[in-house]
Write a structure and sequence with these properties.
The structure is a single chain. The protein has 109 residues and is an all-alpha fold. The protein has a single domain, classed as Orthogonal Bundle (Cytochrome Bc1 Complex, Chain D, domain 2). It has seven helices and no strands. Helix 5 crosses helix 7. 5% of the residues are buried. The C terminus is likely disordered. Bound molecules: heme C (HEC). Heme C binds next to helix 3 and helix 5.
Length: 109
């Protein structure tokens, strides 16, 4: 019994460890993306007018991909692991080093 409780405790400790690694997506978006894509994702952030290519309107992604949110495409674009041909270099790469392991884990799933 004591051994079982010990294992549960270890499990909870592991979960607590994971919890600290979770990224607040909204906060991360506001910090890393909104300058170009705008606070509402429409592509009208304050930096947009200074770029050679206009930032994409992220609110129409699902509609442009047959009604299904293209999660793998989005994660790969953000991470920089794979970008479609002709993708401009105006958007920086936000590889795994930027936000810890969570982006890499999303891409690998
Ligand atoms: C410095 C400006 C800038 C920042 C910061 C930026 N982007 Fe972008 N983003 C762009 C531009 C410009 C494009 C269009 C590139 C192209 O199509 O060649 C783009 C395209 C994209 C696309 C592809 C959309 C599509 O319709 O194919 C996604 C997804 C995306 N950005 C998400 C993000 C996310 C999420 C962040 C924050 C982690 C971010 N971007 C930060 C400028 C930026």
């Amino acid at each position: 019994m004591t051994q079982r409780l010990g294992l549960i405790g270890l499990g909870l400790l592991a979960l607590a460890g994971c919890a600290t690694d979770v990224v607040d997506g909204k906060q991360a978006y506001l910090e890393d993306c909104s300058a170009c894509h705008g606070t509402n994702g429409k592509g009208d952030g304050p930096m947009a007018r200074d770029l050679a290519k206009a930032p994409a309107d992220l609110t129409t992604l699902a509609a442009r991909y047959d009604g299904t949110y293209p999660r793998d495409y989005v994660m790969s674009t953000i991470d920089g692991l794979h970008r479609q041909e002709g993708f401009s270099y105006e958007m920086p790469e936000f590889g795994a080093g930027n936000r810890g392991g969570i982006v890499a884990a999303q891409v690998l799933i």
